[in-house]
From TrEMBL:
Single GO molecular function: DNA-directed RNA polymerase activity
Record protein name field: RNA polymerase subunit sigma-70
Annotated keywords: Nucleotidyltransferase, Plasmid, Sigma factor, Transcription, Transcription regulation, Transferase
Subunit annotation: Interacts transiently with the RNA polymerase catalytic core formed by RpoA, RpoB, RpoC and RpoZ (2 alpha, 1 beta, 1 beta' and 1 omega subunit) to form the RNA polymerase holoenzyme that can initiate transcription.
Organism classification: Bacteria, Bacillati, Actinomycetota, Actinomycetes, Streptosporangiales
NCBIfam families hit by this protein: PRK08241.1, sigma70-ECF, SigX5
Biological source species: Actinomadura luzonensis
Domain RNA polymerase sigma-70 region: 31-95
A Pfam family hit: Sigma70_r2
Amino acid sequence: MTDARPLGAAEATFIAAARAGDPARFALVTERHRRELQVHCYRMLANYDDAQDMTQETFLRAWNKRESFKGHATLRTWLYRIATNACLDFLDKRNDRTPVPAGLPGSELSYLQPYPDGMLPEDPQESVVARETIELAFIVAVQHLPPRQRAVLVLRDVLGWPASKAADALGLTVASVTSALQRARVTMREQLPGRRLDWRSPATHELSDDERSVVKAYIDAHERNDLDGLMSLLRDDLRFAMLPEPGTLSRTARDAVDGWVSGGLFRRGRDDWRCVATTVNRMPAAALYLRAPGDAQYRLFNLAVLRIADGRIAELTGFDATGKPWLGLPPAL
C-alpha cells in the first residue's frame, strides 16, 4: 500500500518512536488522528460507545504492529487500514450486528447512538465530517450493507480512496472492490431516495435558518406543554422512534402524538420541561430536561434529533440521554 509521496514528518516521527519503543512519542504522533478515526468507526458501527472502543483497539493494534510500518503509506492511511479491519473483526463476532433487513425501518435500529458534534474533527473542510455522511439517515443506510461492502463504500466514496488502495487495505482484488462498491451504491440509493450520493462534492456543515427556527419553535412548544403547537410542527408522514426502546416506531404524526399522550406526556410529573438547542450528527436537536415534583433541578432526560424538510419535522429520533456524558450536555439545569 503505497501513497507515492516522500516520507513526512509524522511518518518519520512514528518510525523513530517505533524503533525506540517509546509509547509517549507514539501517542503524541497518533493521537492527532483519534477524532477522525472515531468518526470512521462510527460510520461502520453506528454506535458511539463501540466506535470509541474500536478506536482504542486501533491504537493498540498500531502499537503492537509498529515495526511493520515502513512509511510506504502515510501514517493516516495505515491507521485507517487498521481501524477498518478492527471494525470488520468486531462485526464478524457480533450476531446482533448483521446487515439490517431491507424491510426494517432504519429508525428501529436499536443499537444506533447519536454522535456529538463536539467530538468531530476540528477542521470543517475534512471530508470525514461532511454533514451528508454523518447524518443519522446516512449512518442507518450504511447498516443495510454487509460489512465489507460497508467498508468499501466508506473508503471509496466517503474518504475518496482509489480502488487499488481500498483493495490493499481490505485484502481484496480491485475487481472485488469495484463490484462491492457497485452493489453498495444500489442499496444506498434505495435507502436514501432523492438524496445525492456524490459525497466528495462540496458539502454543507451548518444548520439553515429554517432548521434553527423550527428547533426554537419545538423547544417553545415543549416548554409550554403545547401539544397542538408540537403537532403543527410535524409533517403528516412523520417518522418517529424512541431508542433504544423497541416497538416505538410511528409512521404518521398522529400516531406519534397519540403515543406521546398515552405515555403521559404533559401530564403531572411529565409537564415541567426545560430544553436546550444543540446539534448531533450535524443535525438540529433538542436536549430535554424534566423536573420531577419536589426536585429543585431539571434532569437530563431525552435527546430529540430532528430532520427538517420544508420547514417541518420529517423525522424525530429520540434517544435516552441519561448516563451518556460523552454527549457533552450538563446532567442538570
